Predict the structure.
Amino acid sequence: MARARTPATAREHRAAPPRAPEPSRALQREREQRQIDIQQREPVERRAMVRGLLLLAAVVLALSVARAGLERVLVPGWWTQW
């Protein structure tokens, strides 16, 4: 026996997909405070990052000069080449 098809208008109603609940006021305050903390720490962290990169560059330069030898890096009369 053939099964009868239901018209498109008589389809079963399905519930909407689940949604996350609205954030509470405490959660909103916590997010706002976190954004403020991040904005206050950002300049300090940027300075620390630049300081660390400069220190790393100085260490690499010192190790390169030590490996090559000071005589090869600063040959006699190097100041006259500028």
Notes: The chain has a mean pLDDT of 86. The CA atoms of residues 66 and 73 lie 9 Å apart.
